[in-house]
Amino acid sequence: xxxxxxATCLGDTLFPDAxxxxxxxxSRLGHELVFPPEQTCCGQMHVNTGYQREPVPLVRxxxxxxxxxxxxxxxxxxxxxxxxxxxxxxxxxxxxxxxALRSGVARVKAKTYExxxxxxxxxxxxxxxxxxxxxxxxxxxxHSLRMLHVGEKPLQLLRxxxxxxxxELPEADACCGFGGTFAVKNADTSTAMxxxxxxxxxxxxxxxxxxxxxxxxxxxxxxxxxxxxGTRTLHLAQIxxxxxxxxxxxxxxxxx
Amino acid sequence: MSSTFLGMPAAPPRAPYGEGNLRxxxxxxxxxxxxxxxxxxxENLHRAxxxxxxxxxAMTGELPDWEQLRAAGSAIKTDTMNRLPELLEQLEExxxxxxxxxxxxxxxxxxxAIVTRLVEATGSSxxxxxxxxxxxxxxxxxxxxxxGIQAHETDLAELIVQLAHDKPSHILVPAxxxxxxxxxxxxxxxIPGVDPGLDSVPAHLAAAARAYLREKFMTTKVxxxxxxxxxxxxxxxxxxxxxxNGRMCLTLPDTLITVMGIEKVLPRxxxxxxxxxxxxxxxxxxxxxxxxxxxxxxxxxxxxxxFHLVLLDNGRTAALADSVGREALNCIRCSACLNVCPVYxxxxxxxxxxxxxxxxxxxxxxxxxxxxxxxNDPNSSLPYASTLCGACFDACPVKIDIPSLLVELRxxxxxxxxxxxxxxxxxxAGAVMSRPKLYTNAQKAAGLGRVIAGRDRKISHxxxxxxxxxxxxxxxxxxxxxxxxxxxxxxxxxxLRKAAAEGTGAPSHPSTGENPEEQR
Lengths: 256, 520
Prior knowledge:
The complex is a heterodimer of chains A (256) and B (520).
Chain A: E1 2-5, H1 9-13, H2 16-28, E2 32-34, H3 44-49, H4 56-66, E3 73-76, H5 79-96, H6 99-109, E4 112-114, H7 115-122, E5 135-138, H8 142-147, H9 153-159, E6 165-167, H10 182-185, H11 187-203, E7 208-211, H12 214-226, E8 232-235, H13 236-241, H14 248-255
Parallel strand pairs in A: 1-2, 1-3, 3-4, 5-6, 5-7, 7-8
Chain B: H1 28-35, H2 39-61, H3 66-82, H4 84-97, E1 101-105, H5 108-122, E2 126-129, H6 133-138, H7 140-146, E3 150-153, H8 156-163, H9 180-190, H10 202-219, E4 222-225, E5 229-231, E6 236-241, H11 245-251, E7 255-261, E8 265-266, H12 272-283, E9 291-296, E10 306-312, H13 316-320, H14 336-340, H15 342-347, H16 358-369, H17 391-395, H18 402-416, H19 421-433, H20 436-446, E11 458-459, H21 467-470, E12 475-476, H22 483-488, H23 490-502, H24 516-519
Helix pairs in contact in B: 3-12, 9-10, 16-18
């Protein structure tokens, strides 16, 4: 399949390892990757902060970059960015766009997937040949869980990983408190939520807390780092990219 | 066509915003800052919200048609809002025909004046009250007190709040922020003639309240209630409750005055079938609430012989005018969204500054009372008091898409806020991100963040407005290489070739998408 890869602005700039891992998994599965070089940002931060005029060019750019009918599916290692493309772009197009934008948005929306959706639903793959001999706990991010309804898909993928010790996260479905600019505007409440999430994560004794969204992981990881916890965060794609021949450690060394 | 220049068409007259207990004195982050330090509150909220969450999930999960019920509830409410005027007129006609009197109140001031006049006409200086959000909203008790009329709350938790001269912090469990020892103190101070040896055993506390209230039920001639539902088809009003205090208030006094928000009307009697299932299961996690009272006007020789229905607007028509925001009027005040909200769980109800706290309050309050009534209106902070986690939408029995409403209200706020530093930053970010060349340059500039990171490649202090973030979170230093530069590098190409070779698929290298033929 010809798959368009959207790196997301956060992934491209701050968390490239998660995007590299996404590219590696899809390449390993034999798919052809397309990386439209003019891609930038989906505009989620603008919309969620209350700005709907400013992201119009971003919504248009996304539709143009990935609208090509030669691209069969668009994937991004982020539940919230996929949620923005699928649920917010049409609101922006409807209100501040033109007819061309509205149809462009509708076209691209129909083939946009978060990573676990693409793997399980579209490619029909649960076992991606990964090997990860570590204790892992999974945090279902709010937008993947309640906006995209990915359900068990990430867990199906994780359970198929060879050597993994997957442990359940208590109160897993509770928000970590990030919420984009919420963590800045309402830092105190956000911190109270983060503390509870970190307590649950560390209680699992997991070496790795994983999720399908680098933004939530930046939040949880930032909190874990501050208390000098032994648990670190890794994107779901990074676990799926690790194999017996290229285990996780080698992967990070290569990335440095 | 007339050639007369008529000028710009005038904006249609807009319904006024409501008044009353719909605005705090602090913005949410500041109010939450104080509330978060109340350990007792945090503990009570955690215990109460988690208990009720589990009960609600069990009760909604056992119904095979729960999702259909939610869809039906949503459809009935949407239909109601679409033809609210005709339904209200029908309700008025039916209530009047059944011997009741209907009063229309544009706002809190009018509603308070009507109720006061009606109570004064009976000659009573006391009223007993059924727990009611509408009368909280308009501040009826305070108004009656100014006019020398004493209102006695008869719901146990409302009584606790009233005796403590406190404000409710939850729609359903208004004294959620109090523990039993505090309640004992409140009763010792507030209930005349209470046994000074009263301990804090819940059953003893309830018995003390019961003895006090029983005397009020038997002697007070006027009751004031709210209404959960008003049926246009029959003129029937309904109150659902748990303690039986409502049944006492609705049946014993000579005069009953019901204050009902205009959005509480339902078209048909049979619609109750849907809502009597949705409400208790979502609200208290019960299959059915213990007491369901229904009454239609006046029944000679049985119950109150003088019945008045006060229909309250107080900003509801203003909310109805908003094609997106009006969905908030579908709310049946079950409080399921409060109980699942991670923000409410930490900050508590008082932080919202309104009669309506939690996720629904964050969308309802700004619509009823406005969010730009003055500079730095505290209500303008309410739509931002959410991570948009979506738990409220999943829990709502009438499927109100609260996250989308929050996003909409945030947009309305930025549209009306003029030029702010945030808006300029958003415009700049939008401008950079819509020009790929500028964007890649900005990515390189972000890489400079590496210089402020410590040796462990972590940034532990950030300047305002990000200082709140960095107080409890480290931020990783930006990596040396962005994804796109890695992808364009020999190393990136080699890594992906290796991955393709490792798998079963044919070797592949990402194309730029500009010339797909080249890749074929």
